[in-house]
Structure formats: C-alpha cells, structure tokens
Specification:
single chain; six-stranded antiparallel sheet; 9 helices
C-alpha cells in the first residue's frame, strides 16, 4: 500500500495542481501521505520521549524513597548523639560527686589513724612510732591498722573507692559512646547531603525531559492539524466533484428521459463498467481508511457509514456514486460472486429475494475479503464477504 502511494505521488509530481470547483488547489494524495508520514514520525518521537520521561520519573521516585530513608537515619543519629551527650554529662557529674565523697572519706580515714595512734596501749605510741626505723607507715602496719579500719567504719573508704571506679568506667564508656555517635551523625549527614543532591539532579532531568516531551507533543499536534486540514480539503473537493458529476448524470438522464418521452422512442444508456485499475484505486483507498469511526451519514474525511465509504472510495477512482445503498445497487453492472474483482461492491439484504431490503454495502479487496464500515461503535475494518451473511449480489460501478 505504501509503495502504491509513493508511485502515485511520483506519477503526479510533474502534473499541474488539481483545482477544486471553488478555484482553490486540491491537495494531492502525495501531500496528504507526506503529512501522514510526518504525523507518524512525530508520534514515534513523542512515544520515545514518553518512555524516557517514565524512566526518569521512576528513578526520581526511587531516589526520593532513598532520601526519605537516609533522612530518617540522620534524625535517628541526631537523637542517639543527644542521648550519648546526656549520658556523658551524667557520668561526669557522678564522677565529680564520687571524687568529693572520696576526699571526705580520706579525711575520715586519717582521723581514724590519728586516734588509734594516740590511744595505742602497752608502750608509748609516740616513742614506738618515732623509733621505728621504717617510719610512721611501718608502725601503722605493725599495729594492724587494717583491723582498726575493720572495726571503725572502713565501709566509708570502700564505698568511696567503688564510686570512684564505677564513675570512672562509666565516664570512659560514655566518652566512647559519644565519640561513636558523633561519627555516626557526620556519616549520616554526608549520605543525606549526597542523596539530596542526587534527587535535585534527577528533578532537573525530569523537568528537562518534560519540556522536550511537551515540545514534541506540540509538534505532533501541529502535524495532525496540517494532515487533517489537507485531508479535509482533498475529501471535500473530491466529494464536491462526485456530487457534481452525479448531479450532471442525473440531469442528463432526466433530459434523455424527457426526450424519450417526447418522441415516444425507446432510449438506451451506455452501461460500461469501470476498469480494473480504477477498481484497484478504490480498493486501495478504502484500505487506507481502516480504523476510521463509523457514523450515520458519514462521508469522510474522518467518519463514514457503509455507503459513504464506498462512494468516496470510487470518487478517488473517478467514478461518481450516490450516497445510498439503494442507488449504488443500480449504479453499475451486476457481476456474479465467483467473478469478483477488486473494487466491486458487495450488497447485503434482510431478504435476498428483494433488493428493496438492502441495508449494507462493502468494497471487495480480494481473497474473499472486503473493507466496510459495519455499524455504530465499530471502526472501518476488513471483513470476510460472508461475515454479514450471504451477499444478495455484487455491482461493478
């Protein structure tokens, strides 16, 4: 089909522009086809851009999810750092209290030692202490100062030592925990900053892709408007020509009938069918309309009913038909179903013995198939010639 369209366009390239009845040039089939090709190309480009936009949006969604997770981890690290700071402060305060208690207990221990020294019996304590070659400490050891402490609240010193050790350990652990939490905060902040930068970069990419997509959409709409305008002008011109030709034919028949009536002599009309080349043109054009919507009374360029489609198809082949199945039934030569050629019209009736019940027509394309505009809600399509039932007959315009 595309090849036929190109050949037709090439054949008409050197011909002068065809003029409509209103004097304006009629867009050629090649121009309409070129406009359709541009629509297809821009639609394909837009489809690719839409795919890129969908991928960019998907990546943005993934990055935003990662950003949310890392932001929450950052918040969690901040809370952990605050808790570690509070624990460290508590440890420092506890250590200060323990150190103060330790100093107090040391004074109490010194008082106990002095009292024991002054009240020691059996010999002069001062002389014994001063006479000891190893000094005061050796003397205190000799007299069993440990036993004295055991009898005189040595729990003060034990408690002081325990508090000091525990507080010191707690402070050391708290310092380590605080340092670790501060490290976690820094790492979380780095990840948070990196993912936020990636999100911003992806947002910019999505924005750019949307801009490109919007531009391509505008180009596509412009191409569609151009194609629709050219097709509408061409269809209108061809329909006007067909209508004019049909009117002229009817006028000629009326004049001939009047003359025959006046002379009382029988008059015959030439009844030669169109060529096979014209049938191919009509069939090929009907194929190009597949997908157009059905509409009552439609005769193009965008909607059709059954007889409107066959009328415009044959108008492209240079044959004028009326927009009514009953008229088209008699606007040609009746041919048998086993000798069909491309372009022949196939008619369907509720009663195959009565042509007055004809209600549908399609255009034969070969291979036992036809193109037709079936009914409301169904687009122009290819059907088997017996899909609506056995045809009442066929006509070659």
């Amino acid at each position: 089909m595309a090849g036929c369209g190109l050949l037709t366009a090439a054949g008409l390239a050197g011909a002068p522009p065809r003029m409509a009845l209103d004097g304006n040039p009629v867009p050629s089939a090649g121009q309409v086809q070129a406009a359709q090709n541009q629509v297809n190309q821009r639609a394909a480009a837009l489809g690719q851009a839409d795919e890129r936009l969908a991928a960019a949006n998907a990546k943005l969604t993934d990055l935003e999810t990662q950003a949310e997770i890392l932001t929450e981890n950052y918040d969690k690290s901040i809370v952990g750092e605050q808790q570690a700071q509070a624990a460290y402060t508590t440890a420092v305060n506890k250590l200060a209290g323990a150190q103060s208690a330790q100093r107090s207990s040391r004074r109490q221990v010194a008082d106990l030692a002095a009292t024991e020294f002054e009240t020691q019996g059996g010999f002069d304590p001062m002389a014994a202490m001063l006479g000891d070659a190893h000094g005061v400490r050796a003397y205190l050891n000799q007299i069993g100062l440990g036993q004295v402490f055991a009898r005189n609240r040595t729990d003060i010193l034990a408690k002081n030592s325990a508090d000091s050790v525990v507080a010191g350990v707690f402070r050391a652990e708290a310092r380590i925990a605080l340092t670790q939490k501060q490290t976690d905060v820094r790492q979380a902040a780095i990840l948070k900053t990196a993912i936020q930068a990636a999100v911003s970069q992806q947002l910019a990419a999505v924005k750019t892709t949307k801009s490109v997509t919007s531009h391509l959409s505008g180009l596509l709409q412009g191409a569609k408007m151009t194609e629709q305008s050219l097709a509408a002008k061409r269809q209108a011109a061809l329909a006007a020509e067909a209508a004019a030709a049909a009117a002229a034919a009817r006028a000629a028949q009326q004049r001939a009938a009047s003359a025959a009536s006046a002379s009382s002599a029988p008059v015959s009309f030439p009844n030669s069918p169109a060529s096979s080349q014209q049938g191919n043109i009509a069939a090929d054009w009907a194929l190009s309309q597949i997908g157009r919507p059905y509409q009552w009374g439609g005769a193009g360029p965008y909607t059709y009913d059954c007889s409107g489609l066959t009328m415009v198809a044959w108008a492209h082949a240079g044959v004028a038909l009326l927009h009514y199945t009953g008229d088209q039934w008699v606007e040609g030569v009746h041919v048998s179903l086993d000798s069909l050629q491309r372009g022949d019209l196939l008619f369907f009736a509720t009663d195959n013995s009565d042509p007055a019940t004809i209600h549908h027509v399609g255009i034969y394309i070969g291979g036992g198939d036809m193109v037709d505009a079936p009914y409301t809600g169904v687009d122009v399509r290819i059907d088997s010639i017996d899909a609506p039932g056995v045809p009442i007959g066929a006509v070659r315009p």
